[in-house]
Amino acid sequence: MTNKDFVAINPAKSEIVPLTKVQQQLNVYLGDKKIDEKNEVKHLGLIRTIKNKVNIEDRLKVARRTIYAMLGPGLSARKGMSPIVSARLWQTYALPRACMIQGLPKRVASAANYCLLGIEPIQSTVDRLLLNFFGGIIQDNTSIEYRIIERQLVMSKQTANTFISRLETALSKYKLPKAQELLLVKPTREKWKTTVKCAIQDYWAEKWEMEKLEKSTMKYLDIKARPIGHAHQIWKFTSNNTLEVKKAEIKAKLITRTYTLQVDRAKFSRNVEQDMCQLCNSATEDTEHFMLECNALKTERDKHLTTLISYVKNNIGNKIFDKIMNEGQMVEFILDSSSEKIKEIVNIKHQNIRDIENITRTLCYGLHTKRTTLLNKS
């Protein structure tokens, strides 16, 4: 029984895996009973071998099976479930087994996927758990775990595949103090968790901003200051309703520039197909043309824009809409009224953003359905 936790450790249920190149019996005893020596041992669902390797691929297979099993009940956006709900289910049931739900194509940037749902990458989850685990260990300098950490910091090689090596890599990655410094400072568990959370947020926000500069598909997507844990308004304000989810899916494709227009078909076909709009035959069909200029969609567009203009003038400001138009930010306003570019023009209240999102979601979907209908007739 340990002095710290008052937990009785049963030697008969304990096993040891020697992580050493020296071929010899270790003969480890717990009290007067010898602990069985094995070539591999299962702990917390992971099988660790004498080569210090774990069955990660097996866990990923379990995660994939879990996701596939959940697709039937409606994990996918195409089933009508809000991706916010789907993401929570994924984090609850699939991620623990691992450590398409937005209806977006595979070519969408990874950063866009994460930012829209406000979820953290699996690597971030692993790093956070590792850092928080270390933060818990350093709270008690009399514990066995603490003494092991102290010893490993001195003995472990930086290139070795050890806990300390992974810890130091994570600390460096998120610009946190070194492990030796933390042993001296010993931040409280709560303070350390907050520090880790902020550091992870800052790291991924910066990383995704860099990715945005390299990805043309992220032109209209605004990276929030603390993106993890804060879903984009496209999904945040979408109710768990089949039609509304379909509308939001179209808007998500537009904001990630994965809604296939004629300019994309020309690009994918290496200009075998023309980029000319097949509805009006007057200009290249890109996002701006589709949303603001195509004459074939004018009636449908004006119907929704009238509602949007009326709402903005009555609830935000009489001249705001004209200013947005003059600044050339109309597409940005429709796709993301809370973006930094729009904030430079006007600071919109939360409730107004919600209402604008509902109007523009219907606008995007209306343009999509009208375009699809006209193309099917031609």
Automatic annotation (TrEMBL):
Protein name stated in the entry: Reverse transcriptase zinc-binding domain-containing protein
Domain of life, per lineage: Eukaryota
